[in-house]
What does this fold into?
Amino acid sequence: MSKISAHLPSSITPFSVISQIARRIRIIPLVVLLISTVPAWFLMEAIAPQVVRAYTARVDLAIDRLPNENYETVLRRAEAAARASAQRSFDQDILVTDISIIVSVQNNGAIAPVLALDVSRPQWRSRPDAQIWATYFKTAQSLLFLENSQDLPKK
It folds into this structure.
């Protein structure tokens, strides 16, 4: 058996004053939030600026051995190319903090890296010399078949 009950209207009557105050309470925080975002952003940038995105520039250079050129001359040209490339990379991009350059030499189809230049901007600023910061590969001369190039007779 079901029980049927009638709902009587509530004895609570809406107050117009309370609803107007509630509406204003909702609007005030929204206005304060919208007005305070820009000054808050400026304050955060002043206190803790964003981190600079620095990076390492990587360059691969390839040079060809000229006819009748010995290994020492090829090595000096590789150093000059690395020096110019390092200076150009630091000059072109202010965000570059480190340079990594590998110079390879080609001789009659044989290719081998002869030096690697790894230097930071402060190091390069203090001593811009490729010979100081370069790492030379010992086996490059034999890989390029230049070990006995000085002993070969000219025909």
Notes: Confidence is low (pLDDT under 50) at residues 149-155.
